[in-house]
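Subject: Sanity check before I submit

Could someone independently write out the structure tokens for this chain? I want to compare against mine line by line before I put it in a report. The sequence has 238 residues.
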Amino acid sequence: MKKKALSTIAALLVVVFSGLAQDDFIVIQQSSRKRGEKKIRLNDNIGVVKFTPTQMLVGEINFSYERQISKQSSFEIGLGPTISNIALGGNGGNHYIDPYYGGGGTYQTSGVGFFAEAGYRFYPLDETEALNRFYLSPIFRVRQKNYGLRDISGMLPDKQGSQLLTSFALNFGYQMWLSKSFSFDFFTGLGIGQQQDNSYFQVSEYANNTYTYKWQPTSNSYARYVFNFGMKVGIGHK
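---
Independent answer below. Compare away.
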């Protein structure tokens, strides 16, 4: 009888300890489970060729190139043409201005100019290198827009006007990589600039019972604020 009782107790102890051992195994397995963190996509490119489609809204065909120069810094240059008086409808780029001043009327027509810019970029985040994520960028830029001036009567020769803007701004941006060689670069910034406007307007002169018309040059220079914002699409290379 004693042997039977001891056998029963031993069997119960085996079951209990087996259950405890199984529970301990489960706890150990749960504690050793690692949570996967979403990694930020980085890359080992050293340069990016970019196009800024948002600058077409202000008449720029904007291409740029960024090159890594140290672990957390890069240099970027941009160059391209500008086009003034872009129209959405069927008027082309013609803009009818000043129809009665001095007795004449003038068409302002589209013209091609240029822009050029250069900037230094600093990527301050410790866990990333240049060309990745948040950056600060002081940038210097020159942009000239040209346009034509045409007398509606056809009696005066065509003239050319221009707007020259020289500016300095501080941009803030974030560059993210969707793949090993394709990036989006979002930026915004604020700066100051000096603008020079050169143009012509028509004047009339009365002499010997006759009105004559001529172009009168005008020039104006003033300081202004500069606001930057947009998105660049980039192709990286090693």
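---
OP: Matches mine. For the report I'm noting this point. Residues 2-31 form the longest helix (30 residues).
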